[in-house]
Amino acid sequence: MNSGDNKDKVTIKIPRRLYEEVKTLIADTGFSSATEFIVYVLRDIVAGGKLQKQESVDSEEMELIRKRLRALGYIK
Amino acid sequence: MIKPHGGKLINRVLEGAAKEAAIERGKSLPKISIGQDTLTDLENIAQGVFSPLEGFMNQADFRSVVDHMRLANGLAWTIPITLDVSRKMADQLKPGSEVALMDPAGDMAAILYLEDKYTFDREEMARQVFKTTDDKHPGVKKVYEMGDVLLGGRIDLVKEQPDPYARYNLSPQETRTLFKEKGWDTVVAFQTRNPVHRAHEYLQKCALEVVDGLLLHPLVGGTKSDDIPTDIRIKCYEVIVKNYYHPQRTVFSVMPVNMRYAGPREAIFHALLRKNYGCTHFIVGRDHAGVGNYYGTYDAHYIFREFEPQELAITPFFFEHAFYCRQCGGMASSKTCPHNSAEHVFLSGTKVREMLSRGEIPPKEFTRQEVAEVLIEGLRQRQQQ
């Protein structure tokens, strides 16, 4: 995405192949550019206010892991 | 802690009531018997070693990986992870249905949620992934032996297989926990399918100088029959770690992944898997995962240029050929040593095998005596069997 000269904008790099796929995806859809589409999608996500937190191992599972690591001699 | 590839560590091991229900359901499902290599891949998917994969590749991912070294969503991935069956078997299966995957003992190992089934071009796959269509290449040979149809879809594991190396087999979640306990922010992984000789030890210790910890992480999945047997290698790793590695800075664990011998592509694959284990750096030596003369000495270095650093998000440490130099009086590499190769102590794999089979200990500048003794005794016992 090219920010041009506008200081209110920043450049974000995305994989070229994804960029090409986005261009194909938006053909004949009313989006005038990949940038316009990506900004639209990101605004939609940000408007949600939060993302789903990454599932992490709960404390019970973590204690089981520590127990195994201790039993194997990896930690004291 | 570095994020797993794709952002989330996959866990598709069923437990408790969900597992019991799946086993009960599996009794009435169509059944496919899978071999050891597929079983190993299956367990690695379930345990998160292959994150972000949640199952065997569907056609879109397979094609994208073969052609572009990326999954269909653009995420870097270089080795197809597939489930092949005969055309006759495939004809009996319907996408959208469930299939029971049976292990060699006849027990259900997992449920496959069949998403699609598709044919593939063996030669094209070999050419793209292995850079050769020569059936003497061990990876290509396996491709030519695959069934005609590939099945794609997520899996749930219901039976974990007996593991002869369980004492050293830590899952990605376990190594991540271990590194956290040790307070390591940066960890370099060393991949090998060979005993560790002085040159490998040198690379590992050079790398360790600039990170917090070292994960000595040999591969213990399927290898070629002429590679050193895994049980002997394990003893070699045990003696060298015990005698020459700093216990507070080193973790020795194993990775139960099959070798593909895909050279450069496998170097990327091995790096991504180590990211899942929580490593931030990965050592790439000469002819990584190579076999015969199929790949250039440093092809496994060059392939990293085909990815943006953020696509891989694990930092490769590229090393050149290492050896002991008599003039330098220590270990060195072609990058650091100015002396003639006549001053370098380096033995080919063939030469080492010949010496060991005669019970001769290679020069101490080439290998640690403790390692040589383990190899000689291990190979002697093999010859007697």
Give the arrangement of secondary structure elements.
The complex is a heterodimer of chains A (76) and B (385).
Chain A: H1 16-26, H2 34-47, H3 59-71
Chain B: H1 16-26, E1 31-33, H2 36-47, E2 55-56, H3 59-68, E3 83-85, H4 87-91, E4 98-102, E5 108-119, H5 122-130, H6 138-144, E6 149-157, H7 172-182, E7 187-192, H8 198-208, E8 213-218, H9 230-244, E9 250-252, H10 264-276, E10 281-284, H11 299-302, H12 309-312, E11 315-318, E12 322-325, E13 330-333, E14 344-345, H13 349-357, H14 369-384
Parallel strand pairs in B: 1-4, 7-8, 7-10, 8-9, 10-11
Antiparallel strand pairs in B: 2-6, 3-6, 4-5, 5-6, 12-13, 12-14
Helix pairs in contact in B: 5-6, 9-14
> Total number of β-strand segments of chain A?
0
Detail the poorly predicted runs of chain B. none
DSSP summary, beta strand count of chain B: 14
Q: Compute the gyration radius of chain A: what is it?
A: 22 Å
Most extensive interface, chain pair and sizes: A-B, 16 and 18 residues
Helix content percent band of chain B: 25-40%
Can you give a write-up of this model?
- The complex is a heterodimer of chains A (about 80) and B (about 375).
- Chain A is mainly alpha-helical.
- Chain A contains three helices and no strands.
- Chain A has helices at about 15-25, 35-45, 60-70.
- The longest helix of chain A is centred in the middle third of the chain and has 14 residues, at about 35-45.
- Chain A is elongated, with a radius of gyration of 22 Å.
- The termini of chain A are far apart.
- The mean pLDDT of chain A is about 85.
- With about 375 residues, chain B is of the alpha/beta class.
- Helices cover about 35% and strands about 15% of the residues of chain B.
- Chain B has helices at about 15-25, 35-45, 60-70, 85-90, 120-130, 140-145, 170-180, 200-210, 230-245, 265-275, 300, 310, 350-355, 370-385; strands at about 30-35, 55, 85, 100, 110-120, 150-155, 185-190, 215-220, 250, 280-285, 315-320, 320-325, 330-335, 345.
- In chain B, the strands form three sheets. In chain B, strands 1, 2, 3, 4, 5 and 6 form a six-stranded mixed β-sheet that branches. In chain B, strands 9-8-7-10-11 form a five-stranded parallel β-sheet, with helices on both faces.
- In chain B, helix 8 (about 200-210) links the parallel strand 7 and strand 8 (about 215-220).
- The longest helix of chain B has 16 residues, at about 370-385.
- The mean pLDDT of chain B is about 95.
- The chains are: A mainly alpha (about 80), B alpha/beta (about 375).
- Chains A and B meet through helix 1 and helix 3 of A and helix 7 of B.
